[in-house]
Design goal:
Structural class of chain B: mainly beta
Oligomer: heterodimer
Strand content of chain B: over 45%
Radius of gyration of chain B: 14 Å
Strand content of chain A: over 45%
Helix content of chain B: under 10%
Largest sheet of chain A: 7 strands, mixed
Distance between the termini of chain A: 37 Å
Largest sheet of chain B: 6 strands, mixed
Mean pLDDT of chain A: 91
Radius of gyration of chain A: 14 Å
Helix content of chain A: under 10%
Shape of chain B: globular
Order of helices and strands of chain A: EEEEEEEEEEE
Low-confidence stretches of chain B: none
Distance between the termini of chain B: 41 Å
Number of helices of chain A: 0
Mean pLDDT of chain B: 90
Number of helices of chain B: 0
Low-confidence stretches of chain A: none
Shape of chain A: globular
């Protein structure tokens, strides 16, 4: 079974703090993703990575950065947390697309972050 | 740019009724993939189905069925004889062939099954 774990289910931080959200997958997947989920907006892609030390901006990268030093770990960093970053953050991983095969993403349980 | 529309936000049904969730997508690619995910109250998204653009066959898996129609750019999902455990948010998603597996999600359908 593919397992994607996230470091915390719930997190409360103060405005201006630096926040690290960690994600680990155990299936040797090449791709990893960070999304945020907000009511009425669905899931929006923040950043993704298709290899170690590689990263690509998603649809809403502003205010975030990422780090992928090891294949199994993908970190989302909020350099200076703000109240509008209060949200549910979901990490996902997938195998790199093969020829004529597109692989589903497997999701972690999510981290509900509150910024006060 | 790819886009997925799920028009109904919340749907309530009485247990044992059928419920259909509509998904309409937009893409310029001829090769693409469509997905449905379920998000129960626990929060973790669970993969339900993948369909590629060359395969228009409908699919049935237990009480779940999917109807893919390229002519109307739709990939609808039906739950037959709904149960309380079906209460969840359901997301439709689209991935274009050359997007590094990026998914564009619809906004989701909240399904509430009333016992």
């Amino acid at each position: 079974d593919v397992k994607v774990t996230q470091s915390s289910r719930y997190l409360v931080k103060r405005t201006g703090e630096k926040v690290f959200l960690e994600c680990v997958q155990d299936m040797d997947h090449e791709n990893m993703f960070w999304y945020r989920q907000d009511p009425g907006l669905g899931l929006r892609l923040i950043y993704f990575s298709y290899d170690v030390k590689m990263k690509e901006k998603g649809d809403i990268p502003e205010g975030y950065s990422v780090s992928r030093e090891k294949k199994e770990r993908f970190s989302l960093i909020l350099e200076s947390a703000s109240t509008n970053q209060t949200s549910m953050y979901l990490c996902a991983s997938s195998r790199f697309p093969g020829l004529a095969v597109y692989n589903e993403q497997f999701f972690g349980p999510g981290t509900r972050l509150t910024v006060l | 740019a790819q886009k997925v529309t799920q028009a109904q936000t919340e749907i309530s049904v009485v247990e044992k009724e059928d419920v259909t969730l509509d998904c309409v997508y937009e893409t310029r690619d001829t090769t693409y993939y469509l997905f449905w995910y379920k998000q129960p109250p626990s929060g973790e998204l669970v993969f339900l189905i993948r369909r590629n653009s060359f395969d228009e066959q409908n699919e049935i898996s237990g009480r779940y069925s999917w109807n893919f129609q390229k002519s109307t750019s739709s990939f609808n999902f039906t739950i037959t004889a709904s149960q309380v455990v079906d209460s969840a948010v359901y997301f439709c998603a689209l991935s274009e062939a050359y997007g590094n597996n990026r998914l564009a999600f619809g906004k989701g359908n909240q399904v509430v099954v009333i016992p």
